Every structure is written in structure tokens, then in C-alpha cells.
Amino acid sequence: MTKKELRELCLNKRKALSADKKRALDMEIQSRLLMTQEYRKSDTVLIYVSNEYEIDTFGIINAAFANKKKVAVPVTNEDYSLSFYYINSLKELKRGRFNILEPIDRTKKVEVFDNSICVVPALCCDLEGNRVGYGKGCYDRFLSTYSGCSLCLVYGDDILPQIESENTDEQVDVIISDLYIKLT
Q: What long-range pairs does 64-72 form, CB within 8 A, spacing at least 24?
């Protein structure tokens, strides 16, 4: 299957999930991420703000605040690169490009990524850490220069035997699903 076909298939599966089933799966994935050594050892969490069809990241963001970690949320630039900005509350977000919640204050840009983790969205992935996102390559561009640990959140049913990767694709370091945690 092409990546475009995989995107469509996985997105349709997500849309078909009942609200109760999605909430249960999302809570399991959130719990698994919060138990990882990578999360516990990090000082900063770089994380996307989920939309209605993505694995819910609001619980992770709130837990990071409660755990006294710095939280940074991405902004997609015109060239589809990502810039991360610190936030202290979910109230510091507004709808931006692609109707995604982004930081209002653009003065607190993350310049140093020491001791951070990056939570990456995915519609599906394989056990090698190859993932299918939304097709803009934003996270691949970021991960190509990021030296911290990258974690992908995905439903267990969306972990495939193999995804064909392209030379611009970047693998994630850790896969977290409702079924298990896998280091790639």
C-alpha cells in the first residue's frame, strides 16, 4: 500500500472508533508513555497538541506540567519545518495553521534540546520505527537534526509488519501503543 492509502485507511479506522473505545486506548497509551524511563529522565517534553482523531496528548501535557517538566509545543513554519515554543498552560494555545492548536506567545522558542524527548504523531508505524504521518514531512525535517529521544504514539492495530521508507523519512526511537512499548 502507498503511504497515501495507509493514511486514508488508518484515519478511517480512527474515525470509526467509538468515543469510549478511543478514550480507553488513549488512556492506556498515555499511561505507558508516562511510565517510560525516557519520559521520567527528561526535563523537557516536546509534544504535539492532538486533534480529535489523534491519540489524546492533553493528559500527557497536563502530567508533564504536574511533574514540573518544561513543555514545548510545535508551530509549523511556512517551509514545513517545526519550531517549538514553551508553554506553561493549555490556555496559552490558539488555533493556527492546519487548524492545530499552537502557542500564542512566540517569544519562548526552544533553542537547546538537551535532556528532552519529542512525542511524534503517527497514523501507523512498523516495528523498525518507520511511521506514516500526515504527509508534510514536518517531523522528519525536525528529527533529522534532533539528537534527543523520539517517541511515536500509535494504536496497536496500526502497527504494521513493514512500511516502505523514503530517504527523507526519519525513524522514531520508541513506539508506544496500547499493547506495548517497543524500542527500535
A: 65/89, 69/42, 69/43, 69/44, 69/45, 70/43, 70/44, 70/45, 71/44, 71/45, 71/47, 72/44, 72/45, 72/46, 72/47, 72/110, 72/116
Label residue 165 by pLDDT band (50, 70, 90): confident
Q: Which ranges constitute the DSSP H helices of 36-106? A: 37-41, 58-66
What is the CB neighbour count within 10 angstroms for residue 153? 28
The 10s digit of each residue's pLDDT in 1-31 is 888 899 999 999 999 999 999 999 999 999 9
- pTM score, two decimals? 0.94
- The pairing of strands 101-103 and 44-47 is unpaired
CB 54 within 8 A of CB 131: no
Cross-strand bridge partners of residue 101: 95
Go through the domains of the chain in sequence order and give each one's CATH number: 3-183 (3.40.50.10420)
